[in-house]
């Protein structure tokens, strides 16, 4: 084991949230160490895979408003790194017209002046000919929606962090944390000390927090990431201006369904169910439940006539969900130099730049740029409203 090393801040977990936090800290000239249990890059957490949806369409203003600034931060990173990370496609939102969440998304978009197109039935058939909408469904397009190139983004933010002088140590599992005015972190390859610690351990958040006497009501779900073959190649392709989509809850699907145009795998469109089976993050490959895929097959048969209703590729990924689907962005209740970013509930990737900024601000004792009351740990003592 190497001798102890001292830093201004240590970040545990090099997924998208930890990587952006570490990057932001080095921008603030803090000597920062980013620790990762696996050799990078890896596919065992939540941030791997080629694509994620980015959008402003949310039920709650706080997310739509944070995305306003977040888009600018993504563009800034693209410029800094000279790499394309975002592709605008628009996000088609479909849902029962009179359902509360559909109406809330519509009014949040309009209230926040997000460029939005409300589609009549005729316009829908003209603009999006290869989807059969269901009776009574409303449809709109959040024109800011699109695709983020996820693996590429993760690699770039880690590279920019290192360019600014930050240190990544991968293949180093954190085994213990000793809180104090100076926090000591014992990892498989060494012992490290810092004035502040940020824990962004994704599905392993509670394992790490147990060393600090805290447990959060987090559940880990395995998600089957399904790709479906186009019957005619190019029918749902990004070059044909096919949008990303969000199908809100319908009778046969208790959770929403989302998809991205065919792009990363030629001729295959990604369509997934926003729900999975609860799992231990270390044992996800033992799960064989495919009830989510059955729901998707039925949905695709009915609504996507140009896709073969049998997945051609199935990958897997993990969600870490809170009871209300809102994130956790807060100080540790006992140690104010330990900051926690957790529970991103399957919708956190797009917020990476802003979450990095907010966790950096908290770890430096600064007033955060946004009201973080929605994301506080104390809410778990009382009932709160869910995020999509
Ligand atoms: C199938 C799927 C689709 C999604 N789609 C979208 C989308 O369209 N749009 C969107 O915005 N979001 C989406 N998300 C959500 C988004 O990807 C996650 O919210 C985000 O990646 C979470 O990042 P994280 O950094 O918190 O976790 P992770 O990426 O899991 O990172 C945590 C890291 O901590 C490390 N770690 C844990 N324990 C230790 C330890 N003891 N020592 C050292 N390191 C440790 C882990 O190895 C891991 O690398 C999706 C997620 C999935 C799974």
CA(first)-CA(last) distance: 45 Å
- Broad shape: globular
Q: Superfamily at the CATH H level of the largest domain?
A: FAD/NAD(P)-binding domain
CATH class of the largest domain: Alpha Beta
Mean pLDDT: 95
Regions with pLDDT < 50 over 5+ consecutive residues?
Answer: none
**How many β-strand stretches?**
20
Measured by DSSP, the beta-strand proportion falls in 25-35%
The count of helical stretches stands at: 8
How do the helices and strands line up, and which of them pair or pack?
Elements: E1 5-12, H1 16-27, E2 32-35, E3 51-54, H2 61-81, E4 86-88, E5 91-96, H3 100-111, E6 116-119, H4 121-127, E7 137-142, E8 146-149, H5 150-163, E9 167-169, E10 174-178, E11 183-187, E12 190-199, H6 205-209, E13 219-230, E14 244-247, E15 257-260, E16 268-273, E17 277-278, H7 291-303, E18 307-321, E19 328-331, E20 338-342, H8 352-363
Parallel strand pairs: 1-2, 1-12, 2-9, 5-14, 12-20
Antiparallel strand pairs: 3-8, 4-8, 5-7, 6-7, 10-11, 11-12, 13-16, 13-17, 13-18, 14-15, 15-16, 19-20
Helix pairs in contact: 1-5, 1-8
């Amino acid at each position: 084991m190497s001798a102890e090393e001292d830093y201004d801040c240590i970040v545990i977990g090099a997924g998208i949230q930890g990587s952006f936090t570490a990057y932001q800290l080095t921008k603030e000239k803090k000597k920062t160490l980013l620790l990762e249990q696996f050799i990078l890059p890896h596919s065992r957490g939540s941030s791997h895979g080629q694509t994620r949806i980015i959008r402003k369409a949310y039920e709650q203003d706080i997310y739509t408003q944070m995305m306003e600034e977040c888009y600018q931060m993504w563009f800034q990173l693209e410029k800094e790194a000279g790499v394309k990370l975002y592709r605008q496609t628009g996000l088609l939102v479909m849902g029962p017209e009179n359902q509360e969440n559909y109406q809330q998304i519509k009014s949040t978009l309009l209230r926040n002046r997000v460029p939005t197109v409300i589609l009549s039935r005729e316009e829908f058939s003209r603009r999006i000919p290869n989807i059969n909408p269901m009776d009574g469904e409303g449809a709109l397009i959040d024109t800011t929606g699109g695709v983020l190139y996820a693996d590429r983004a993760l690699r770039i933010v880690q590279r920019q962090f290192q360019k600014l002088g930050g240190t990544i140590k991968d293949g180093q599992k954190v085994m213990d944390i000793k809180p104090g005015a100076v926090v000591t972190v014992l990892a498989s390859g060494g012992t490290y000390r810092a004035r502040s610690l940020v824990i962004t351990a994704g599905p392993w958040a509670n394992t790490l927090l147990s060393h600090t006497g805290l447990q959060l009501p987090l559940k880990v779900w395995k998600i089957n990431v399904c790709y479906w073959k186009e019957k005619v190649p190019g029918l749902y392709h990004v070059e044909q201006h096919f949008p990303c989509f969000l199908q809100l809850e319908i009778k046969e699907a208790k959770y929403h369904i989302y998809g991205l145009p065919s792009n990363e795998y030629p001729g295959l469109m990604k369509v997934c169910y926003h729900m999975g089976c609860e799992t231990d993050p270390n044992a996800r490959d033992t799960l064989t439940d495919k009830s989510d895929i059955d729901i998707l097959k039925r949905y695709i048969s009915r609504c996507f006539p140009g896709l073969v209703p049998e997945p051609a590729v199935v990958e897997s990924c993990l969600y870490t969900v809170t009871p209300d689907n809102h994130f956790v962005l807060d100080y540790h209740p006992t140690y104010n130099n330990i900051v926690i970013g957790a529970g991103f509930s399957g919708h956190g990737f797009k917020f990476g730049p802003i979450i990095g900024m907010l966790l950096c601000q908290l770890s430096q004792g600064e007033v955060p740029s946004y009201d973080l009351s929605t994301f506080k740990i104390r809410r778990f003592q009382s009932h709160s409203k869910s995020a999509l």
